[in-house]
Amino acid sequence: MDMEGGAMDIDGLDNTLSSTSSTNGIQGREGHVEFEYTGREPVPTDVTHVRFHPSVIKVGGYAIDYDNDYDGLAEIENEYAFKECHKLVEVVFNEGLTKIGRFAFICCKIKSITFPSTLEEIDICAFKCCDNLEEVVLNNGIETIEEMVFSDCESLSSITIPSSVTNIERHAFSGCSSMREVELNEGLKNIEDHAFSSCDSLQSIALPSTLTALGVGAFSGCSSLREVVLNEGLKKMGENAFKLCTSLQCITCPSSLIEIGNSAFEYCRHGLKEFEVNEGIQKIGKAAFNSCISLKRIVLPSTLIEIGTKAFYHCNILKEVELLGKMHLQIANL
């Protein structure tokens, strides 16, 4: 940010203040105080709605910082663009915006967001802890959902990931406790660690065939999750992937899956009664099904080489284990 000569350049952009803005905002319909953001002027304390001037193509680092003793928006600085603006409920993004910087709207009271088609990047934690956020429409063109972008958005009920997205990074949607629906489109290659952990209302998930890796704890603690469809293409399921999914009843494993990670289904206590491991799997990790106390039957394929320590520990009513074909199996203490 360059302040030389009184001009302000945010992330290399020299923006011109709109003459329609005033230091007290634009008084809109009753209860609304609107402000046109240009990247040059401090935003007033009473602003509830922000729209972006067409000249703005990037919202970046500390653009507007929050003062704990100042209930609103303060001055343009370096990062945390609209952090903790507790009165801010609506933001309209203009076409031409390409990037939203890290922590830009963290802890705001925004209710819905529609991103422009030009947007290419939403940086880490940009909308973290926006606990009133109910609706997000992601544009086709974004390639990565960065880490913790929407984590702990407790009112967010659904999300559709566009086909342009190839990677969902760690904790991207973790703690979205009202999330009931997640649509993952073909094109997605990787879901990283804890990306959807503790989404307590999520009931089912289908993973696309383009997905090859499922990270550590990717869906751990999704206590309402009942059905999981793992499509052909998935090769490795990370440790703790579905740990503490206590309502899980049905899971379909593809033949492409080679490894079930440590503790992948640990403490899936109440619903999981039967599990068939398809041909192709070579390893079941340590404690993979530990304390699945409703598990009664499991089918193990001829391709299986290793079963880790305590893989089926405390599966107290497991009565039937079917071994397919001739197996050369290394079995630890189950």
Quick overview of this protein structure:
The protein has 334 residues and is an all-beta fold.
Largest sheet: 9 strands, parallel
Number-wise, the strands total 28
Low-confidence stretches: 1-29, 60-78
Structural class: mainly beta
Instruction: Choose one word for the global shape.
Output: elongated
- CATH class of the largest domain, named Alpha Beta
Intertermini distance = 59 Å
Strand content: 15-25%
The CATH homologous superfamily name of the largest domain equals: Ribonuclease Inhibitor
The overall average pLDDT, rounded, is: 79
CATH architectural type of the largest domain: Alpha-Beta Horseshoe
Kindly identify the CATH topology of the largest domain: Leucine-rich repeat, LRR (right-handed beta-alpha superhelix)
Order of helix and strand elements from N to C terminus = EEEEEEEEEEEEEEEEEEEEEEEEEEEE
What is the total domain count? 2
Query: Helicity, in percent?
Result: under 10%
- What would you report as the Rg, rounded to the nearest angstrom? 24 Å
Q: Please, how many helices?
A: 0
**Sheet with most strands: strand arrangement:** 12-14-16-18-20-22-24-26-28
